[in-house]
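G., before I forget:
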Amino acid sequence: MTAQTMPQETTAAPPVVKIDGITKGFPNRKKGFQRIVAETNVDIQEGEFITIIGPSGCGKSTILKMLAGLESVDEGAILLEGEPITAPSRQLGIVFQQHVLLPWMSARQNVVFALETEPGSTSTKEELRERADKYLDLVNLSHAADQRPSQLSGGMQQRVGIARAFALEPKVMLLDEPLGALDALTRHELQLQLLRLCEQQKRTFIMVTHDVDEALLLSDRILVMGSGPNAEIIHDITVPFGRPRDAETVEQDAKYHELRSFLLGSLTSH
Amino acid sequence: MSTQAPETTASAPSSAEQGAPEALQRRAKAQRARDRVRTTGLFLAFFLAFIAVWHLGTAGLDDGGLAPTPAATWDRLLEMLGDAFLLDGPNNVGIFYHLLASIQRVLLGFGIAALIAIPLGLLLGTSQVFNDGLDPFIQVLKPVSPLAWLPLGLALLRDSQMTAIFVIFMAALWPILIATIDGVRRVNPLYLDLAKSLEADTRTSTFKVLLPATLPGIVTGLRTALSTAWLVIVAAEMIVGGRGMGHFVWNEWNALNTPSIVVAIVIIGGVGFILDRSIAQLQRLVPKG
């Protein structure tokens, strides 16, 4: 049923995330029930940056919501280190599509709030504050820590959201079109910042986007989804660029243009 | 790095005053001053015209002095303010104590309504099942004039003071309840996804996320409720008696003392305005999403 090829080198280590035969659908007024995501199987290795790309409405965001535990699966299971994901977990950090900062808190308070909600946390307020400041500094926002979200630009707001997700130090980071709401210039700037951050903070990343350049710049592997409903993964592409990467080398690579036109082609022809 | 939006040029004090736009600024300032003079002049003109019409309208009537003339009303105003703090037996009470009684009833009934309506609204806003079950009651009881509850209150509570508070409670309950439910529904659903993904417990997600995010809606409801309560208290007090602005107005009518009624109307309006303004101030303090 699945058209994807198996992942490149089948390593001995078990996958950190295993998407095992999941499907998902929603009640539909006309047909009674509409399946959105066809049976999907993916193994994600530790430290991998994987991107799910596809046209609007293909169900890629639904897959990410299921990975986050915010949406249940109809069939199959998603396993995090062998355990099925049935509810949201702090092991799964989310960077939301639009900034989701609480407007009555400063940037720092937003990060501290995320840290202090940890059940059974024994850290002092001071420790949490230091940890929040460390991650705000990683996204170059130390100077804006005391500002309210409404005082920050769209790009800065999203950087606070990224800092918050990293500060949780989750096993897996889920990025739901993290830069989708930004203008082209800010977007490019943040792509580079995200690239640097992801290479620094060794984690497993799963991103959803419809930006081909973003996918090629950041990922180790790109899963291309066909158009929905009942969408499935039609290509599983290994991105050949080494790490650490920089945007210029990647963009000058001949394979970059080849992959780019291939991806654009497969996104529009379905 | 400055993060302030560059829209504050008009109010920036020192930097904007120098340089070329000085003349423009002076012109804008002069324009504002002219507008202020016009507004004040217009207000005074209307006010004088109103007094003149009032005077002419009432001076011609000779019906035993029932129509309040401006002059009689003015005299009565001074008299009432002079005796504002009078406390001389149950039938001779200064206007201040009437006002105080009304404000107390309103704030008490309004406060109890808020204490019940806000938690209930949070529950109904988050739980579709609860909401669907209780919505018919809300929809049928909401359009009932709070005064319709008054006789029932007298029968059940057997206390006129409690009944007045009960009527205010019924007047304030629905606006707060409905605004809170609506406020919860307007909360960005991603805030709740965030709380879930942080494994926040019910307490944290209710008090640290849901409640602050609903606050703008709640305060709007409080404002409507307080205005309604102040409208209703006068009518309620006309019936339950005792002390209070409504009772005062009705009493003065029975004594055919119409200038007092005009004074009372102005005081009721002024205090209603102040109550509304104080909640509007609260509204400005609440950060919006």
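Chain B has eleven helices and no strands. Chain B touches chain A through 23 residues (CB under 8 Å).

More on Monday.
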